[in-house]
Amino acid sequence: MQHGKYQFNRLIDWKKAWIDGADLSDTKTVVLAQARTLYIPIPKAANSSVKRALYPTLGLEADPKIDVHRDRRIPTLPLSEALKLAEDDWFIFTIVRDPFDRSLSAWTDKVLRKRVENQRSLRRMGLQPDDSHATLLSALRGWPPRLLNDHFMPQSMLSQRALATGRLSVFHFETLNTDWPEISRRITANGGPNPAPLPHLNTSRADYSTAFTPQETKLITAIYRNDLETFGYSTQRHATNAEAV
């Protein structure tokens, strides 16, 4: 980690957050107008699979040459704007994931696999391809939460505007294989074409006793405390696999 770069840009971003009111939490929301539905995507919580499954509801066909996250055919609005469209009978949903598994998955993807290439927000933090999960977490802990990359921003912050309405239906990544039929039913009940089935998701969870050091556990609990409390997750839950993917 390049500590000088981290400290310099951290001060700049805290100034943006404190004085300028900068806020990146107004996340892009998928608007399914015919289905009177809003989907609030959470990175590393089945985001790609859900967007692909919603293609039929949007009247679209998947194009293997187009990254689903760059598909401009998918109608999106900032969440604050999307909520203005949503009348009382609209279905508003999101999918959240255990913050421990989500953090490990995001580090594996953005740092280990992609080597922080094309990850401007991580490079501004001074992060380097060989940085550990603990190093990443330490960097996140000192950064303004509202200016974090959305893969690392707390899920409760990304969904806060919808949570405040009392109308948000929250589903969990860990049970999405069984919950997807209910989500599909509610979409069709609101007048939308039926979504596609989800591919079977690997929803197994990291074994906390081997996947996380005490330092990592402490940092994740501090950074994502509101997620843990809001969405009912615990640091004491265990699973059989030692790696979150």
Quick structural gist:
With 245 residues, this protein is of the alpha/beta class.
Helix content: 40-55%
End-to-end Cα distance, whole Å, is: 24 Å
The domain tally reads 1
User: Mind telling me which CATH architecture this is?
Assistant: 3-Layer(aba) Sandwich
Beta-strand segment tally = 5
Derived from helix and strand composition plus strand pairing, the structural class reads alpha/beta
CATH class: Alpha Beta
Elements, N to C (H/E): HEEHEHEHHHHHEHHHH
- Shape, per Cα inertia axes: globular
Mean pLDDT: 90
Q: Which strand order does the major sheet show?
A: 3-1-2-4-5
- What is the CATH fold-level name? Rossmann fold
Radius of gyration: 18 Å
Main beta sheet strand tally, sense and closure? 5 strands, mixed
Beta content comes to 5-15%
